[in-house]
Automatic annotation (TrEMBL), chains A, B, C, D, E:
Any Pfam family hit: Bestrophin_2
Protein's name according to its UniProt entry: Bestrophin family ion channel
Keyword Transmembrane assigned: yes
Signal peptide interval: none
Source organism superkingdom: Bacteria
Length: 304, 304, 304, 304, 304
């Protein structure tokens, strides 16, 4: 995620880092070169009776813009939902620990429960980013817990089960009444909602054909655009063609980034920063002192 | 569902499998041939004083694009909601089993309850895909249960009732307090929400007239398009006509696929994979060892 | 509701039943005749210096299409919400009966409670469709109950009160603890949500001015369209004018149907089928044998 | 709110009452007169070399239509949410009274509680419409209650507190267990949601700049439109200019009405009717006989 | 937030304060001057064979308008959600205090709990606006509480923990049963939802590339617009160019304001007024007399 400070409106036009420009620069250059070729070839193919006008491209351009708008909206919704789920994880983590601290007897070993909570957040992050989990989880789990967690399809869900076991043990010992156990258990259910929600977003892309149709029409449109413009604009063709292509291609590329919000591209969610914030929050609530350093954006305003 | 790896933007333009192209190829070919006929007939019907221009088609094209955008959005919403419902089934299944394991005495026969949970997921899948349920359910249910389940309108709902009976029996035996029974029962209600939600999506299509109006206008528009373009574009007519037709027809066809997300077409939900994932998850949570193999995409990246 | 099987894309263009075509045929015919008159009158009013071009109609057409798109979306949302409410009624009915069966002693007269539940679904349907309720309700309610129910503003709400009374009586007899009564009572609240939601949709139309503005602009646009097209298209005017008018008028008419989803028009919800399905479901859950026949679509694929 | 019966599509075009036409008639007339002036002045300013064409107005018109569409959607969402909140008040009122009647001993003075519930609905309505509350509330509250209620910032919230006090008194007397008190208290929370939701809609308009930008561009567009049209349309300019202006201005004006749904304009919510319906419902549920008359639409189909 | 009274439609066109005009005036002036330069240079670059027409700008303009519409919608959603979260804080604050007053023994020191509630609202506001918290919080918290609160990452969350401690102490003393503690604790969870929701909106902007692409295309479009218009409009170019630029640039700037709703710009949320209203409400509910003055809009209708 980019957390760029406000700049002058004029200087913002020329931003390079953090934009999708670096990624699509070669495609725009290709479009520019194609436009120049088209200008050069104009006399030849005009003599063949081949001609293209802007009017049909106007229909096509507006139609593509409309469909692209809806698709970008769909991809952005996934991004927003993913962020909301991580926000809910923060909420559930705080509420769970607050309830645990407020209801269990003072001599309970809450620190080990906090470790499980932190492990859940990191495990979910690593599961979504396909990072090996063992090194990180070993810091928070006992060896026995670690073995159980790494053996299953969804490690985060097993951690949830371990948290449930911990609470059940408290209930067995009479430290929790059924009503309070029920309440704490609902917080675990909230975390289960976050887990399965993230798995769903990560595992179910926007229907492939939806992305493909727009990808295809956008690029075919941009390839044919110089031919349509050259009759009217002549020497100005490359500039206008690149400008229009930029508008369409950059939004197509951005939609692809937003579609998978858990990646590590420029416009993806800063899961490292969020999971560390959850860890800090939980440790501070339990008045522990070994707090991890806050993750800050790098020199390119990039937060991971 | 297609889970295609990222490819080069250029090669993606030529993707054939997994797109809707194979389905609409013949229609686009027809459009191409019609365009050629129109070019050939141009002198004849020009002499009759018949002429069409692009301008009115621009109004029509933009209007259809707008309506198609809204309708595609409506169909995509059904797809998203269907996927969310199955995600909720994963959530409820995990939470239910976690609560059962954490609250019931250690000597309870939880395995038989897990069988009911797995049977629910498979039964729902088979109900939505109109597959005969007996062979699969026989693996998870006793003969008596099976008879009851197959006798009713909604087998999955009867399985839910059996799960309720099982919990009620635990309560009768004093293994569950009222508050914990209430909590577990709420998880059954969550599964009831999933069941009725899926039945609703499967049973209530987007209003037929909505689909029909857009289907009709899209095809009439595409049929008349060559006549409108030929005056301006002449020899280029077939190419532009096919490109515009592709944009509109492919989105119309995709909307039809997304409208019924429980089917087995390219862009439908991978219910086989999801219900098997639920089964695996539940078996692993109960530390059982006979885990079904994970369903992977086939060679065409198709996941069912 | 139309539940039409999939047909060939070509034959679907010519569908008559179930579309809005029969309803708007006369208006399109009028548009066709007007177009012919306009062609005939062209020389006369051209000589008066009156002329219309397509360009301003392009602005108007696109603007109307955009507003119509948003309004159709609003009307479709009402349709979707109405269907979801009835889905929630199915959910609440099933959950309520499952909880009642699982928590009350085996000798309870559950059948009379099921009668109340079924009466609620039918009463809601009849209230929404303004059908006299006495004949149907008499099948499910005692004479005393019937008198109470028919005396009030909202019969379905009185049935809900009777269900509450029945549960309260069980609690008074000690058959239900407070926590279980609370849980069952929440299901009644869910049914209250459905009831008031349906009353809201039925009682509060889309703001009249919203419908009116679009109705008016659509028809004025279609009336003036032939005058704008005739200069460019001449003999082709009637065909293009009718095609564009069909696109706009059919969507305006469909929006009106969807706006009131509880009616009995082609694209309204099949409340008869849904309420009968609820009845069947409840009777089967209680293992009763006198099940009503399933309501199937008629020869025109129409389900009421 | 207008509850107009269905009319013939043709006669609906000429509706005057209930539309926004009366409000904007003078502006459309001004536009008409301006158009005539423009026609008269055409030779003079053509000679100055001043000319306007439709093409740039097409960009502007479509852009404004798109933004207006989104803004109207935002305003309509407020209207819908406001209506839903009042629907939730109906739900909470019914559920609260049903639970009170079903759980409290038969000799409880429920009538005084019903008075508080009715007072809440009326107080909320009067607070939203800035009507003096004392005369109406005096009918339902004791003198002591009235003094408390009128002394605070939000009278309706104080009534909620009084209802809470009443329930707390029942609990103190042992008539309500904690679990049932908790359940009833949740209904009060539901009413609190309605209260704060309505206050939010009433107190936070759509951002002023959003309304202003569209207001300004719509009117500047309409003022300049005749200049752009006159070159092409000449004598037809006034008619087309007024038609296009009507489309844009009427939607701008309607958006302003919907933005504040609690007013007493044509398209605002019928709070009088809704709050009276709630009163009737509660009195009938408590089997009281002094029911207020139902509020019906007036001769212009207007319901307040 | 601007709370401007209704004005005549004509005078509203000329509003200056509260609009985004002051902010973008220099950019529009630049556009105006550029247009004049373009007119002056027209003969020169026409002789070079450079020419631009409106047609390709029409495609670009409509595409940008569509994307801008969607992006503005996304930013407006953030504004609406932020306002809803503060509305939920009002709801939770009222409900929490009502429940506390109704369930705790009369001799409880509720005033100190009210101080914590007020401190939460102010702390959240100051956290979102990056204002030093110590001076304000010192009014509501004891020295010991203050030290704890200022030591952590999220002061508001620590206040929530203190509220939980207070309630837990009541439960320990036997003043609260588990069920009532659970109920009150749920209100704290509601406040936790508000807290994390606001943190999320403040910490996660709309993806930077989304804002950037539209910013860039809007300004490039406006810069090139005079070149495209000058051929058709000549002397009228500056006026039309500024009008179109105003439409696009003002919406781009407004979207930026709405994107961060917790700031102190014209169109941001009036957090001062809202948090003071919450304080007033809570003090009045507890029948205290030292009520802060209501915050009213300033002379420019601005409410902070």
């Amino acid at each position: 995620m980019i957390v760029r400070p406000h700049e002058h409106w004029l200087s913002r036009i020329f931003v390079w880092h953090g934009s999708v420009l670096p990624k699509i620069f070669s495609r725009l250059l290709l479009n520019f070169l194609l436009s120049i070729t088209v200008i050069a070839m104009l006399p030849w193919y005009s003599s063949l009776g081949v001609k293209l006008t802007v009017a049909p491209f106007s229909i096509l351009g507006v139609a593509i813009a409309i469909f692209l708008g809806f698709r970008n909206n769909a991809c952005y919704s996934r991004y927003v939902e993913a962020r909301q789920l991580w926000g809910q994880l923060m909420i559930a983590s705080r509420s769970l620990l607050r309830e645990v601290k407020n209801t269990l007897p003072p001599d309970t070993d809450i620190a080990s429960f906090v470790r499980l909570q932190i492990a859940f957040a990191h495990s979910l992050r690593m599961q979504l980013r396909h990072v090996p989990q063992e090194p990180t989880l070993a810091k928070y789990l006992t060896q026995e817990q670690l073995t159980q967690v790494l053996a299953v399809q969804s490690p985060a869900n097993r951690i949830l089960l371990l948290m449930g076991n911990w609470l059940a043990a408290q209930r067995q010992q009479g430290a929790l009444s059924d009503i309070l156990f029920h309440s704490l258990n609902n917080r675990l259910n909230d975390m289960s909602v976050v887990l399965a929600g993230c798995e769903r977003i990560a595992g179910t892309p926007v229907p492939f054909a939806y992305s493909l149709i727009l990808h295809r029409t956008v690029y075919l449109f941009c390839i044919m655009l110089p031919f349509a413009l050259v009759g009217d604009l002549h020497y100005m063709t490359p500039f206008i063609s690149v400008l229009i292509s930029y508008t369409f291609i950059s939004l197509d590329v951005l939609a692809e980034e937003l579609e998978e919000p858990f990646g590590v591209e420029n416009n993806d969610l800063p899961l490292d920063a969020i999971s560390t914030a959850i860890e800090t929050e939980l440790l501070q609530m339990n008045d522990e002192t070994d707090i991890p350093a806050k993750i800050l954006p790098d020199r390119c305003y990039q937060l991971t």
